[in-house]
Design a protein that fits this description.
The chain has three helices and three strands. By secondary structure, the chain is of the alpha+beta class. The protein has a three-stranded antiparallel beta sheet.
């Protein structure tokens, strides 16, 4: 099984976010990450799952139940 490991720069590009934001999320433990030789690293599959989770959270908050017509 091959796991693609990404750098902060690569994650920032993938998520279209600023690198400083990625560092902040990693430091706070808000995004799946780990440190290797004092540098943040990310598993691409974990980032994709995290994005799906966040998307589901947002969709759940914005979706309104449909009202049935009488």
């Amino acid at each position: 099984m091959e796991k693609e490991v990404l750098t902060v720069k690569q994650v920032a590009e993938f998520l279209q976010m600023d690198e400083r934001t990625i560092y902040k999320l990693a430091k706070q433990g808000d995004i799946p990450s780990f440190k290797a030789s004092n540098q943040w690293r990310f598993i691409k599959k974990d980032i994709e799952s995290w994005v799906e989770q966040k998307k589901s959270e947002v969709m759940g908050k914005t979706e309104k139940p449909l009202k049935e017509k009488d």
